[in-house]
Design the sequence.
């Protein structure tokens, strides 16, 4: 079997894409903490439920950004293939 | 119609933006892509809606009915959202924020109608991010003047100016990348479902559409507008 340099780079890009989406761990933990505290807050003050929910969703969407950067790196490696020639 | 414009046509996995035809300008080759077509379709729908709304409101009745109710509901909701964040400054920005809110929302949920969402192209979201950036810095120079901007730049000490400049530049990049990556990930997952599962993917992908297009799209629209308002309000300052 003949493996050219390009093939090796493609294979390594696939592995790198898999490694890049490990970044999803961080936002998962962060969003879980945000949701947990929001549930806590609703338990203490059920009247403010809509305010708490919108604040929680805003915070979660912002926390998601770092995970999306990892996803973006994976997509670039898989579909745009910047390292091959 | 090209396969890429109607994404739900299946057959194979296709998530890329395709060029339809090219033209030369100043020695550069420019492409009219599927994003332009999808955006024109979204804008045509929106402009049609706006013209209908305008005609309706011109002959507004004392007791609203049907369509007039819908228009008043949308406008009041957007006004309330802007007023909740910007307070006294809301009257100047309500128009702009409402416009980009409706545009981004319609772009995001156009995936439900089988289009490739225009916001899944970095060119579109980057333009939106740059508009926010210009708005922030125009208001900063207008309300805090040059001395205030320089003072903000050298916040703790002058040596931190490069870091402050980088964090200023990071604002439009992170705003646009957040919107882009969210919508793109939804687009890719829908393309994978339709492309790989073939005839199995009938009816039940609508559940995925509700999450990736409606829920995610609405949340990201809200976040984009919310952050734009917060940054602009920050730039205006308390005076």
Sequence:
């Amino acid at each position: 079997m003949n493996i050219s340099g390009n093939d090796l780079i493609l294979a390594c890009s696939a592995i790198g894409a898999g490694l890049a989406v490990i970044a999803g761990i961080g936002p998962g933990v962060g969003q879980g903490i945000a949701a947990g505290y929001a549930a806590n807050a609703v338990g203490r003050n059920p009247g403010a439920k809509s305010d708490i929910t919108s604040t929680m969703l805003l915070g979660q969407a912002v926390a998601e950004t770092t995970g999306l950067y990892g996803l973006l790196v994976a997509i670039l490696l898989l579909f745009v293939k910047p390292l091959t020639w | 119609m090209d396969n890429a414009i109607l994404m739900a046509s299946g057959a194979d996995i296709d998530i890329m933006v395709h060029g339809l035809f090219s033209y030369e300008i100043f020695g550069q080759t420019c492409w009219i892509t599927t994003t332009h077509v999808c955006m024109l379709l979204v804008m045509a729908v929106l402009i049609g809606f706006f013209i209908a709304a305008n005609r309706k409101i011109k002959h507004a009745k004392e007791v609203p009915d049907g369509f007039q109710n819908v228009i008043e509901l949308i406008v009041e909701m957007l006004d309330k959202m802007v007023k909740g964040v910007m307070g006294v400054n809301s009257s100047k920005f309500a128009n702009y924020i409402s416009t980009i809110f409706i545009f981004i929302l319609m772009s995001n949920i156009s995936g439900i109608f089988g289009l490739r969402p225009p916001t899944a192209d970095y060119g579109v979201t980057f333009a939106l991010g740059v508009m926010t950036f210009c708005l922030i810095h125009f208001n900063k120079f207008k309300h805090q003047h040059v001395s205030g901007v320089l003072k903000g730049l050298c916040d703790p000490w002058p040596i931190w100016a490069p870091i402050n400049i980088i964090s200023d530049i990071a604002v439009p990049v992170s705003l646009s990348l957040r919107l882009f990556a969210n919508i793109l990930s939804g687009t890719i997952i829908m393309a994978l479902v339709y492309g790989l599962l073939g005839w199995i993917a009938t009816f039940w992908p609508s559940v995925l559409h509700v999450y990736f297009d409606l829920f995610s799209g609405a949340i990201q629209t809200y976040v984009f507008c919310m952050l734009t308002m917060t940054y602009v309000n920050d730039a205006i300052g308390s005076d």
